[in-house]
Amino acid sequence: MGIKVGIIGCGSIAKFRHAPEYQANPHVTELVFYDRNAARAKELALEFGGCYVETVDELINDPTITAISDCSSNEVHHIHTSNALLSGKHVLCEKPLAINVAFAEKMLEAERKSGKKLMIDHNQRFTKAHQKAKELLDQKELGEVLTFKTTFGHQGPEGWGVDKSNATWFFKKDRSYSGVAGDLGIHKIDLIHYLLDDEIDVVHAFHGALDKVDETGEKIEVCDNVVCALKTKRGRLGTASFSWTYYGAEDNSTTIYCEGGIIKIYQHPEAQLIIEKKDGTVIKYELEPIQTNENQTNTGVIDAFIDCIINDREPPVTGKQALACLKVIDQILGL
Amino acid sequence: MGIKVGIIGCGSIAKFRHAPEYQANPHVTELVFYDRNAARAKELALEFGGCYVETVDELINDPTITAISDCSSNEVHHIHTSNALLSGKHVLCEKPLAINVAFAEKMLEAERKSGKKLMIDHNQRFTKAHQKAKELLDQKELGEVLTFKTTFGHQGPEGWGVDKSNATWFFKKDRSYSGVAGDLGIHKIDLIHYLLDDEIDVVHAFHGALDKVDETGEKIEVCDNVVCALKTKRGRLGTASFSWTYYGAEDNSTTIYCEGGIIKIYQHPEAQLIIEKKDGTVIKYELEPIQTNENQTNTGVIDAFIDCIINDREPPVTGKQALACLKVIDQILGL
Amino acid sequence: MGIKVGIIGCGSIAKFRHAPEYQANPHVTELVFYDRNAARAKELALEFGGCYVETVDELINDPTITAISDCSSNEVHHIHTSNALLSGKHVLCEKPLAINVAFAEKMLEAERKSGKKLMIDHNQRFTKAHQKAKELLDQKELGEVLTFKTTFGHQGPEGWGVDKSNATWFFKKDRSYSGVAGDLGIHKIDLIHYLLDDEIDVVHAFHGALDKVDETGEKIEVCDNVVCALKTKRGRLGTASFSWTYYGAEDNSTTIYCEGGIIKIYQHPEAQLIIEKKDGTVIKYELEPIQTNENQTNTGVIDAFIDCIINDREPPVTGKQALACLKVIDQILGL
Amino acid sequence: MGIKVGIIGCGSIAKFRHAPEYQANPHVTELVFYDRNAARAKELALEFGGCYVETVDELINDPTITAISDCSSNEVHHIHTSNALLSGKHVLCEKPLAINVAFAEKMLEAERKSGKKLMIDHNQRFTKAHQKAKELLDQKELGEVLTFKTTFGHQGPEGWGVDKSNATWFFKKDRSYSGVAGDLGIHKIDLIHYLLDDEIDVVHAFHGALDKVDETGEKIEVCDNVVCALKTKRGRLGTASFSWTYYGAEDNSTTIYCEGGIIKIYQHPEAQLIIEKKDGTVIKYELEPIQTNENQTNTGVIDAFIDCIINDREPPVTGKQALACLKVIDQILGL
Amino acid sequence: MGIKVGIIGCGSIAKFRHAPEYQANPHVTELVFYDRNAARAKELALEFGGCYVETVDELINDPTITAISDCSSNEVHHIHTSNALLSGKHVLCEKPLAINVAFAEKMLEAERKSGKKLMIDHNQRFTKAHQKAKELLDQKELGEVLTFKTTFGHQGPEGWGVDKSNATWFFKKDRSYSGVAGDLGIHKIDLIHYLLDDEIDVVHAFHGALDKVDETGEKIEVCDNVVCALKTKRGRLGTASFSWTYYGAEDNSTTIYCEGGIIKIYQHPEAQLIIEKKDGTVIKYELEPIQTNENQTNTGVIDAFIDCIINDREPPVTGKQALACLKVIDQILGL
Amino acid sequence: MGIKVGIIGCGSIAKFRHAPEYQANPHVTELVFYDRNAARAKELALEFGGCYVETVDELINDPTITAISDCSSNEVHHIHTSNALLSGKHVLCEKPLAINVAFAEKMLEAERKSGKKLMIDHNQRFTKAHQKAKELLDQKELGEVLTFKTTFGHQGPEGWGVDKSNATWFFKKDRSYSGVAGDLGIHKIDLIHYLLDDEIDVVHAFHGALDKVDETGEKIEVCDNVVCALKTKRGRLGTASFSWTYYGAEDNSTTIYCEGGIIKIYQHPEAQLIIEKKDGTVIKYELEPIQTNENQTNTGVIDAFIDCIINDREPPVTGKQALACLKVIDQILGL
């Protein structure tokens, strides 16, 4: 018996990632789209061969829908996702989980009450290079982790949204909430938690709107750059940089320094993972090219979400993990 | 008329950098060596064809000596350098300038009183790639600088000193004072000041002794790793990492993110400087390979020091600049 | 208010360069096509969404047409372009300007009388690599130019025209006039004038039909190869080779030898511009791949032509400059 | 029975090429050195284990000497070589054969009279890449030759002579006679004759002293650059450039354009010979790196000279061939 | 007058190789398709614009058909091909010629009787690299052949057939007859015969079904791996490996060791043919990439077949040659 | 207390491998050399700072000698090694263990009786790439091994021995016994046994003297080429080629085909080990370059031998294992 999925919010992330990946998943048999702007829902229904509804309640109350992707704006995640959970749906919520910790905690409360699965779309974990790095780190091939560096930056989100301009919601305080920190930073915070099997404990950071201007020519209200020094609960030290002003090639690199060598991720176009060992040995893994805004391949997130429903497993990215990331973002922003 | 130079302290830095570069400089006609361990002074006198003296006072009071390199241990720089200046010598002092700010300020006082030149050996400024980057930044080829990243790390100083073991003075609190921060960090702090024509204003950092042990097997007393988030007076944000525990290839890279593109220094083995521009243009400069502990070429420091004496110019690295770096190191270490 | 453009002659150059580039230009709102063979005009009108006319006079006398591309055969440029100018149109004339100097001088006369703009399609100036080289030469980054070498050659024009055979008009004396000299040579003569801000003064050359045969198997009447030694007014010396018989990869390279180093253009597949300096520094510019007959990208010529009309600027390639090139071709051919 | 060889003139060419290659040849058993400056002869005798004589006549009249290398200055070749031949010696004369055609003709007269062998050191013929190209051309693998390009240029001869300064004899009218034309050009003229089995018939050229100055700061009296358009007896067209002012990497490249493809020699650091065929096939020959002033390997010239003596064969580079080259140089210089 | 061709069997080989290559051949004017499963014949008729027939006899008896491709299953080649020959058709028969030697001999008998041409699709001979190797070997550029190595292996035929599963006929004893030996091995046996102008005389081999299972999960009945030591009539020694279990990149390499060097075929992605000579010279031929199951280009086989009909030449792969290969396969399998 | 070592036989293997590696081993304090030709023993004693003896008995009976390297000719291994063992020495015997199985069995008998250690110099096991491959195979990273290919070939042993000519003992029946099979083949047979943790069970092979001639111009008496098909006890199939007539680069490659991918050893100059996996992942290990006759680095064999003495462990290559290899060689040669 196939799974019927509802998608709330029909922006770019729904169009380019959720909808096509549900379509490609063999267990998903039907798609229902909702967007405040019904035209957008209709368009996706057409493109991906499903139907659409006019109100979010139709979706949430439809008893034949088993699972929901919450691709709504960040500021309403806590409403839609909580309602969906409490209506008995499994929910895959886009990142960031919520625009503040209090909202996020209510979502986790809804998860607990409902007994349904809540998964968050921290998709960095699912790339081949990050999965291989995780495997090597878990096996302690290079001993314990000592320090790390991680970066996520590109030329900015103006080109990503539907309207490709600097009027983008990413630049609005009330909708994006945390600027580049929530857009890019949260991905790599989650990745560090995942790879190191550890949690950021203390953050020292600076953030600011250094270059981006909105449609009126004013400096944007949210930060376009974050730099941090980080310390984990297990005592590892690291730096992180998140930026919308890297005006060259996109950079999604991470380096993990261990007792026995170094793991370099996404630093070479052909070898996505490189290991340098103390004795001079270099091991190059040619896996798959990194996903960039220009290179969209299957993230694996949808398959993982459907899989945890079918096999009744814990989601690979839990609400609790996402909350931990959100708290780090709060520390970064000094909230 | 040639210049007679005295060298105080005959360890590795004197042997591998100062002595050979003085020897290669056409204006230097005589070398006099001093070390607390007279045997080492004698050895260098033999190797580089000069003489040696038994006491530091002989050197400082020799009226025929015009210039002095202070290659003594960090903890006595303020004594030897100050005395030399006050005795009318120009002094090139090894980095870090001193083991605390108070001592350093006294050295600057001595410089002022004596009217002699004090230069500090922050040699990173002199590499071809850094000089080219400086030129591009000064000309604003890529507009203003927004953010930056800098790193200096290798497998540790155990292999550098004369005795190649973890009994090295680099690991001793009372002699190295600031561990990797003073050994490697101060180079890149100075470099950032130089390249950006700016000064680090606020530092958020973590530091610790994460891996290195001394000859007794105890964790070392000074830090082997530093990670920082930095903010400059002109509002640029950046990260820096300094490490003795990068157990792979040495990393002395710096990245400068500007309004019009990115400058990548020492990130590619053949192209020491790479520019990525907003329009996709990539420019690769094949200059000279970076100096590493294994690849020692002429630093240009000695030539610059002699040049500022002969032409009565301000030294390219002043005591004031070195003091500014020292204050940043103090911030890093939370002093 | 948009610009209405007329195109005279609907051969390959109109189809592959002029029409699509006008279509892509935001200021051009209408296209009108004319060809002696009305079917070809009709076909392009269909493809690029404009209309066509049956006689050239309709085009030239249409008061709503502001600008005209003269893509007619070389032997009638002087008629159509002069008429168009005198009818008050700005004209972009294909190269070579005319089949002899006398005709060309009449065209310049028409330009002067009409007060309209005459631009010639010497498109080599507009490639990214040539523009960057020009910038470096103007800034005297490598000092003064001493000597140069330039080449333009490929397997021949048989494959370029509409009928892809050796019955091509390029091989006919009465239509192509100057063979490879006018087809390829004039491009690089103009480029040398442009890059060096100088003019070829004396030419020593050989030319001949060494290999190409026409549809009857006879050696062609125009030259398929030119080799020259060149001297500029400012005393620079160089060589040039133009060929339709380079039976390997196309070669459109130029090398400029300066007092401080060498500029190599289009000699490496990835780095379109390479600078070698006296001190051993090598700088590689990865710009865009060169245009070849197989790789047609926007030349920038149409945009430049429209831009000089809108902003009432001097065309970037003037009739006077084109005449200078034509005189060099005459010298090459010994006319 | 071994061959005893005399060397006239003990400058760089004798020291770095003739003497070591005679020493390495198994048939040569004794070396005798002569130089106007006896000290230099003595030095080489010491280094290569031979004896030296005080006057050139001792050498020329020594009945035990079979063969002579004439490494004297260009302006006395015709004297020494003619005398040696007429005294019954086989002579290997350095290039250029003589400083004018009349002298050269007398040398050929001496050769004819003496019945001895006269070989000229046009060593370009002997490199592996040139030999392979010759073989391919002789076999007509790519059909007939149509056109060609050849170049020989570097940063100038100042660093080559014994005294490494711009007081070098290469810059003196009375000793070098033809500047870069005789130094570098004659090599490539000979090479073109050899590869194409043809002879330059008409030359159109410019030459000049564009950049080099002598020890007084005056422009040099001989040309430092030559550019030519060339036509062979069999109707092939080509260009040639010879330069002492290529202030980047040395360039000794030649390209031969044939009916069926292109032969590229010394244009790629690893593949010294590359063939591009009409059908797109590319064949890369990795032979040996080209000889430059910095990379001196066995030229093969000495072995070939000794071999033609032992086996009584015609020398691979005859006086007649060298005379033909000299006449081309005369045409280049407009003499 | 064009040739009308019949195709017997409409599986993958007909669809991807025979039909499109006949379609591209200028001499072939009509195609007629037959398959036991008429739907498949119909489909190809539609795709390639021919007609189809319901019985094989219609095809064989059609007097307007000149040539036939026998793409039927291996076990019926001897029936269809023999009948076609005896009906006066020229036949191109897929490999392997037949499932046993006796059948094959009857086919040759039919060929002799009919006087028609029988060609076998041993297409390895026709690749550019193999043709170039043959030319070099025939010319004895490297002297005589001493030894050789050849391999043909990939991940298995499951993905090649129409039904892309391990129910493939390749795995069935009664249809594929000889497993990987007949599928891949016969290609390389024929290639060795062709390249060396020699014949395998004695074979020592092992074969087995080491890994592949059929649709029931049982080990397959035919071999998935063959390894052999080989000796030719002229005394050359070699090894061969044929495999359906190379679970990485496809390998179709051959190495020929000669008295003067080594010929390496299909061992480098860009240089399909590499020659290493005794003296260290390496010659790299960049021809065309090898055909793999994923990279299907024109094999040249159809053109060669049509050419031998039109010009009444002996087919480039004769029945006799194919029989010789079949006998080697028998030896390999110990039959 | 240091170990005193005796070396029997002072040919190339003693001079280039045993002596320098003993000298570099920190536990070895004295070296004693013996050779039938006392001059050679004396020479090595001089070079490596030991003493030499005139008779082999002096060595074998010296009670202060703990360990012996038997570098004598193959035909006397069984005598010297057995005697040494029975005199209470640990013995490292060069490969091949003996010239026939019967002799080898006596040596194992001597080992058993003496209770001393016998190790054989099968040094291929010790290279980094082979050790890494072993580790990956033991961990079944790619599942079970299915098939394999191995090769060992070069231009021949003429250049290896002391007298560098084709009078070498390698070419003599009575001294080398098994030609290339014993020289190169035994290394790779042992390697296959080691890597696969398996043993060759059946061998089908051809061998012959195809090209090499001895000093009289006669074909040599031993084989210069071997080709084999191999089957192991656990059912894996493979091919092997051993050759002295690979007249290009040396080839010491091995490929292991597994259920989940392929391991390629020594097939790429920079990545000595490459893994290709079923899913397309490629992993490249940059370890150390392979040892060739031109590139001699520490084999690790001597260190392993000394280590097993000091720690009383089983030698990493036992007499039993060497005997198994010898039996395979016998099968290859049909003995």
TrEMBL record, chains A, B, C, D, E, F:
GFO/IDH/MocA-like oxidoreductase domain sequence ranges: 130-263
Coiled coil: none
Domain Gfo/Idh/MocA-like oxidoreductase N-terminal: 3-122
Protein origin, superkingdom: Bacteria
PANTHER family listed in its UniProt record: BILIVERDIN REDUCTASE A
UniProt-recorded name of the protein: Dehydrogenase
